[in-house]
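During the no-cost extension, the postdoctoral fellow (Dr. R.K.) reprocessed legacy sequence entries with the updated structure-token encoder. One reprocessed record is reproduced below for audit purposes.
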Amino acid sequence: DQVREIIEDRGFDAEVLSTDLQSPVASRITEQKGSVNDSGFVTTTVGVEGMTCGACTSAVEGGFKDVPGVKNFSISLLSERAVIEHDPALLTPEQIAEIIEDRGFGAEVLDTTKSMREAGSDEGDASQSDIATTTVAIEGMTCGACTAAVEGGFKGVEGVLKFNISLLAERAVITHNVSKISPEQIAETIEDRGFDAAVLSTQFESSDLGPLASTAQFRIYGNLDAAAAQALET
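Re-encoded structure tokens follow.
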């Protein structure tokens, strides 16, 4: 709530979409099935056709409210993608596509990969200090095809654990294993797709914050552009 208030103090409307602390639904599942192993989670990317506005993305998102097995959900109108972190034992990629189709949109499962914790263990049990989140400023994007082109440059790239991009903010945020792909290599990959890229920051994960640390996702209203994004960052 305090993060939301800070954003609103900058002159924008903000709505908390998710916080990755364990939800009541996940707690009930834990009680019913015993301890939940986070390494069992996977991340599924779905291509969504037919979305034309924010109401469409909200309609898709609403289909996953309180669905058992869903840990994190994000959707992009511009790139026509939904990214869902979920427990495949409770919710399969095919069921995810069916939920989206039931909301009236076309859906195609593009990729399903192991989530960050499990991916990290498979990559030689990389220490937590090897995992970082890098923010890159990108110049030259003008449409959804541009964001898709940038995103396509990271498909199947070893060490990339999570990828998000915003056309309006002119930013890409990549969670990655620095022993596999460095921030500089990320910028080079974007430049190879025909866009200018500058690394703004790289933050390493730390266990010092303890189990109460979390990542929150917000929907921000107010015709955001690159200048507005910079104002929020400061």
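The first helix runs from residue 2 to 9. The mean pLDDT is 77. The remaining legacy entries will be reprocessed before the final report is submitted.
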